[in-house]
Design a protein that fits this description.
There is one protein chain. It is built from eleven helices and 18 strands. By secondary structure, the protein is an alpha+beta fold. It folds into two domains: 156 residues, Creatine Amidinohydrolase, Chain A, domain 1 (3-Layer(aba) Sandwich); 231 residues, Creatine Amidinohydrolase, CATH 3.90.230. A six-stranded mixed sheet has the order 4-3-2-1-5-6, sandwiched between helices. Strands 7, 8, 9, 10 and 18 form a five-stranded mixed sheet that branches. α8 packs across α9 and α10 packs antiparallel against α11. It is elongated and about 75 Å long. Bound molecules: zinc ion (3 copies). The site of one zinc ion (ZN) has 2 residues, from loops.
Length: 397
Amino acid sequence: MSTHSIPADRHATRIARAQAALPAEDASALLLGVGADLQYLTGYGAHELERLTMLVVPAIGRATLIAPRLEMALAQACTASEARLIDLAPWEETDDPFALVAAQLDASDSRPEIQLGALGGTWGRLGGLLVSDRLWATFLLRLQATLPDAAFGLASTVMTTMRAVKDAEEIELLRRAALAADRVVAQIAAGPLVGRTEAEVSKEVLDRLVTEGHDEGDFAIVASGPNSASPHHGPGPRVIAAGEPIVLDIGGRLEGYWSDTTRTLWVTGDADIRPTDEFTKLFDTLHGAQEAQRAAVRPGLAAAELDAVGRKMIAKAGYGENFIHRTGHGTGLDGHEDPYIVSSNEAPLVAGNVFSIEPGIYIEGKFGARIEDLVACGVNGVDELNVSSRDLYVVRG
Ligand code: ZN
Ligand code: ZN
Ligand code: ZN
């Protein structure tokens, strides 16, 4: 029996809100494959398989979860199914699941109380069908072949705005995941580090993420020495040496919700090789910028403005060319989702947004640093989900 941190009535509200948003998009239904949208509406964190799993959410009437017979026990255990908010439709190994999707759409269209055309949209018989943005091409192509009259669009047109504003239970799950990641940072900083490969330390991080309460460890960037100048460095065979920095960027999922935090370490080794002046100047600049950005978070501030707060400080110190990515990204059931904290996003932050603040400064071939926190935008300002120190971790290693 699984525990559900998100109560059933939340799912009922989300399904109803998604349905209510469809007519304005000229859409008659949402077709959600495995992924964050499905989990958001039903609580079902399904496996990605070559067999189709799909939630059919008509604009009016009950949603139906179509899933392979062998996954039915898992599907049945999800919050929305246990609370009887959705119906289940299993398919056998020799069935055509795409025909089952079409039959569901037909059924919702033919029930006398559900005349989709009466909703006032401009669609034909089926009109728009909004599919999950990350639905595999193999599924979408077969849906299109089965439903040639429909106009296909992206589910994000209705799901993104909803998912970008987290409710209290979601923020608590994100906080639990963040605090678990914070504990792993402290454990890794305690060493040993010098003499081990990045890949070994990375594997240790992934194991510890699970030990500290994640369901899965998903990524563990361990970028040492010159590799710290590459923001998405893949941990490899490089052996960590004394007298160099390590950028540690780690995350996993807890009940579907992601952690994502970065701290920068400096390993002194037994010879006690302290950070160079050059590195200290770089790190102090970064630390000041990231702190100012966290402090600036409030509803109504444009995402672009929040990006600018840190970027200006970094540029003023002479590192403008070395901050080569956006400030951050939303996080929830997807590791990267709206809102994006980038200079092209003029949309204002709203209370309930959860996103990363992760400026970095990278000197190619030499070294780099990044500091990353997940924060929630509260009604009165920032609510910090990570609480570990953002200072440079000067450790023996
Ligand atoms: Zn990244
Ligand atoms: Zn990260
Ligand atoms: Zn991130």
